């Protein structure tokens, strides 16, 4: 990608955030609760990325998403660490493809802890696939003019029916359908 001098790039300090350095099984076991806990800020970030089509404008929202994730795992570690570790270890070691089926008992213990200590219920199946309307506090961006508003001339008219259509010179492709 070519960048001119007119483009302002963010500084390195703007891009530096603490990373969420976790394993796959850890993220998979916490995903429903993490998605629910950080849903609003994540939707705001994704809306910013989609509407503005410029990741530089959404850096602060991205930092807030990361901070929400870190804050969620801090609360999880403080309240339900033992149940969570058992569940994550079961998902990690019970199958080769991180299947949840063999770990339903440890999942139930973890879900109970999350409900009792953090007042969070596991989202029902299909929760994240349902369409939602996100009300953003940001003003809507100015949209460029619609390219469909242009007026195009009509298509080239077809040949009139009065034009003679002689038979093909070397007969048709399907010999049984020709005259």
Automatic annotation (TrEMBL):
Keywords: Disulfide bond, Electron transport, Mitochondrion, Repeat, Respiratory chain, Transport. InterPro entries: Cyt_c_biogenesis_Cmc1-like (IPR013892), NDUFA8 (IPR016680). It is found in: Mitochondrion. The keyword Isomerase does not apply. Accessory subunit of the mitochondrial membrane respiratory chain NADH dehydrogenase (Complex I), that is believed not to be involved in catalysis. Complex I functions in the transfer of electrons from NADH to the respiratory chain. The immediate electron acceptor for the enzyme is believed to be ubiquinone. Belongs to the CMC family. Belongs to the complex I NDUFA8 subunit family. This is COX assembly mitochondrial protein. It comes from Iphiclides podalirius.
């Amino acid at each position: 990608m070519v960048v001119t001098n007119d483009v302002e790039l963010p500084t390195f300090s703007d891009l530096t955030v603490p990373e969420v350095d976790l394993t796959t099984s850890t993220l998979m076991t916490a995903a429903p609760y993490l998605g629910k806990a950080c849903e609003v800020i994540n939707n705001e970030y994704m809306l910013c990325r989609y509407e503005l089509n410029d990741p530089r404008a959404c850096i602060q929202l991205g930092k807030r998403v990361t901070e929400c994730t870190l804050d969620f795992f801090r609360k999880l570690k403080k309240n339900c660490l033992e149940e969570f570790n058992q569940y994550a270890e079961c998902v990690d070691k019970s199958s080769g493809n991180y299947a949840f089926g063999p770990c339903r008992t440890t999942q139930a213990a973890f879900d109970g802890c999350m409900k009792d200590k953090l007042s969070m219920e596991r989202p029902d199946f299909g929760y994240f696939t349902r369409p939602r309307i996100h009300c953003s506090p940001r003003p809507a961006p100015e949209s460029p003019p619609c390219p469909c508003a242009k007026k195009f001339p009509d298509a080239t008219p077809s040949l009139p029916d009065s034009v003679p259509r002689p038979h093909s010179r070397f007969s048709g492709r399907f010999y049984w359908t020709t005259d």
